[in-house]
Every structure is written in structure tokens, then in C-alpha cells.
Amino acid sequence: xxxxxxxxxxxxxxxxxxxxxxxxxxxxxxxxxxxxxxxxxxxxxxxxxxxxxxxxxxxxxxxxxxxxxxxxxxxxxxxxxxxxxxxxxxxxxxxxxxxxxxxxxxxxxxxxxxxxxxxxxxxxxxxxxxxxxxxxxxxxxxxxxxxxxxxxxxxxxxxxxxxxxxxxxxxxxxxxxxxxxxxxxxxxxxxxxxxxxxxxxxxxxxxxx
Length: 209
Hints:
Layout: E1 2-7, H1 15-29, E2 33-38, H2 39-42, H3 50-53, H4 66-74, E3 79-85, H5 93-101, H6 103-106, H7 113-120, E4 124-131, H8 140-152, E5 156-164, H9 178-188
Parallel strand pairs: 1-2, 1-3, 3-4, 4-5
């Protein structure tokens, strides 16, 4: 299986980036293909008004690496894992921009939108977060956004690893050992039990048989 691991922090060696690298290592240890991408390497700008910005052939006019990352890395992957620091109780601007920029390619005004939508549906999705604050709901807004993204794209939200730290590398001193947890998360990413029941879902009386 293939997973795209997106590190969205502007700090290339920051705490969320360390979590992302550990997760990618875990994926590789389990025999999966893990592609590691820094958001800053592929994003040079935010989403614009596609009605004014789009090229005559329907392509996005923003000249950066997002199109290649989206079509060559994100769409073919069975899994997507995003790493972000908590900024103002939300995700990094880079991660939000990554999601926003996908709109250009699944909007009805894009000629191959149907194929793009097919590629966006049904992925396994994971989240890695780092924060200085340990209040339990500090990551609540980001988790909620990922849950809704998974609902919208009929994807499976596999789970979250949260590490605490502020200075670069601080997360390695977190006594809960989130780097070990992120590596294990990567190893188990494609097999980890994950459910999101609706009221009429048929389900057994026991979780673990």
C-alpha cells in the first residue's frame, strides 16, 4: 500500500515534522510505500477565485508544485497522513491551503473532475499533531475538521497521535513517547481497527470478537 505523509509545519525539523518522519518509518517497516512531502515544497500560494484564475483549458493557473503533488502523490495513494503543529487552536496555514487547493480539481469547472473525485474517495486518513499546550481539547478543531473531511470523501479516519513540545525536538522528551507512538501508528496504519458508526449500522456486540 502507498501513503502520502505531508509535513505541514514551516519548521522542517520541528516537532510535527519529527512525528511525520517517525510515522513514515513505521509505514516502511510494515512494508508499505511512504512518500514524505514538506508542504512548503509544493505550495506557493493560497486558493484563488477559480472563475477568474483558471486557464482556458481548465487547468489551475497557480504555478507551483501542488498539481504534481496532488495528481502524482495524493490521488494514487491509499492513505494520507498529515502532520501539523497547533496554531491558534487550528492547523497550520499550509495544511489548510493543501486541502483548499484540491477544490480547483474537483470543481465542476475542471474538465476531469469526475476522475479526481474518484481518486479522493475511500482513503485511510491519519493525523499527527504537536502542541505546547496539553489541554485535552487543544487539537479538537483540527480533529473535527479531519472527521468531516473523511465523511465528505467517504474515507476512514484511522486516528491521531499527539505529541507535546515547543522548542525544536522537544517532542522527543515527551514522557508519553509520541515518536514511538507515531512509528507504531505508521506500522499499523493500513490494518488498525477504525469505525465510525451511524445509528443504523449493523455491528457486532463486541469490538474485539
